[in-house]
Amino acid sequence: MKKQASTQEASTVGPNGPHVFSFAANGDGFLLDGTPFQIRSGELHPARIPVEYWRHRIQMAKAMGMNTIALYVMWNYHEPTEGTFDFHTDNRDIEAFIRLCQAENMWVLFRPGPYVCAEWDLGGIPSWLLKYPNIRLRTDRATDPRYMHAVERYINELSPRVKPLLAENGGPILMIQIENEFGSFDSNAAYLEEIRQFWIHGGIHGPFFTEDGLVQLQQNRSNVAGGAIALSNGNAAQIEAARKAFPSVPAMAGEVYPGWLTHWGEHAFQGTSVDLSATLDELMRKNLSFNLYVIHGGTSFGFYAGANVDADSGEYQPDITSYDYAAPVSEQGVATKRYMKYRSIIARYLSTPLPPVPSPIATIAVTDANGTRQLMPQRYASIWDNLPVALPSAQTTHPQSFEMYGQAFGFVLYRKSLVLNESGSLDISDVHDYATVFIDDRYAGGVSRTRMPEERALPLKVVYREPVTLPGASSVADESPMLEILVEGMGRVNYGHSMIDRKGITGPVVLHRATGAREVLTEWKVVLLPMDRTFVENLRPLCSKPDKAGLFFIATLSIDTIGDVYFDVSEWTKGMVWVNGHNLGRYWNIGPQKRLYCPAPWLKPGDNTVLIFDLHQLEAKPVSLASTLS
Known about the structure:
Jelly Rolls; 8-stranded parallel beta barrel; alpha+beta; TIM Barrel; 25% strand
């Protein structure tokens, strides 16, 4: 027999018509129209889910027993260039996502940052702010007015979109979060209050809440006036501790982790052994509010995956493309075994039955009569035959970062004619984050900011913060070799105090001659290669230097019916994949991710174009089709 729930449920009180969401007078919990209400939330990120799948993922959360959806808004996804906002194209229509939640009888916890972390590039903060050499992020107006002016503009853009969607105005939004895990970064009450006031000036007076680890919250007092408290890695015991420290406002488990994030080069996908059964059972038994971070992670398509810096070693740790997170709902939207287990636990405490689990999205056939179905790409184009015009020389005396050139993502090519008639070595230790180096079209080596164990290094000469030896000149004709450094910017650091993470060459390039002379190289030619959709769709199919790495390969996927699919690129080295112009994200043979997810809406019946850019391979390898991440 199911236990009678003492809290209101979405099935009995839905987000339709005005409602009053408030805090109990003694801080014991949350109230909906004056009645105790348990928030059972699952986190979804609209930016990581194709718009066509939004409703399916919301329904998956509902069928697991959730009555609320928590969502981050990634600021840099909506203001990609300074002052220009996009809340309309593709999966950027946040208002439409929230209305879908309401249509599915789900409440909303709104988490707009401006900083969100989320294993997302720069934690959601726009990279164009890094064009200021001395910029300070996540700080008050007195410390850096440039940052706070941008934050104010962002919130002013959001406020009129959000206000009609508040519960008090007939929408589903219960609370708005102020910043994110600020106690892990600093102690600055003025900064948090300034953000709160931006919302108030926009006509939104709350309810507000903050999200922090319990220890960080206690140390840095990073809550806001009158705001509820959400706890990272929260559980029943931590909620009790927070209530003792902050007795006047309610606390909830704001991020309960069902899995974990994964970096490139780790041995396996992380978080797969997590079991929340006991935690969930206690939260339900005690009618405590919680948010599963994440109930479904989705995919960091394109260039948006973030990075960490290891606190002990200082090692740069870029995140993989998949944000599967070992979550209850997998990357492609499938209910996992733990999903069914957690659903059963939650259902025991509810007075009404849960809706049926939605059917999974169909996958296309990944086998044929010969077994594994494969694509065999062909060499298509060379990056070297598709270079845009170099920047004016006034901008290129010294190599600068992407941000100083106004570029957010992709690659930048730095070129320099050398006067060299002897052996030498090149010091390009300040590369963010991965570079291939060429001397007169010959691959000379590479630099990876991420140090990898020897057994998992690329099967090529990869140098980590060490000189790249240049071939000595043997004749007068070799006196001016061309040096080319093609730099890939990977994810910007999204957590901690290393977030000022500019991309490209961020320090001097030094030539060490065999004679002992040291020369800082200047007067560069710089070519911007954002690798955006316009660029790849306008590639000229030329390949005049097939033996020079930096090639595009193309294949055709012919299908009768669309469906989800994974492209297995385990035989490739490092690069990107586009399908019909959609950027599926990065791959890298250091793993653990070897397959890239392609959602069905990005395919069409008939012929589909698969484009691969690989930084190292000169010959194509097969690409197998798969139906799962691993």
